[in-house]
Amino acid sequence: MSDYAVRAIGCGGKVRLFACRTTGIVEQLHQRHGTSATVSAALGRTVSVAAMMGLMNKGQDKLTIQIHGDGPAGKIIVDADACGNIRGYVTNPQVDFPTNDAGKLDVRRALGTSGMIYVTKDLGLKEPYCGSSEIVSGEIGEDFTYYFTQSEQTPSAVGVGVIVERDLSIKGSGGFIVQLLPNTDAEIIDELEESLRQFGPVSQKIADGYTPEQMLQALVKDVQFLETKELCFSCTCNHERIKSVISQLGLAEIQSMLEKDGKAEVTCNFCNEKYEISGEELATICRELGEDR
Ligand code: ZN
Question: Is the pTM of this model over 0.85?
Answer without folding.
Answer: yes
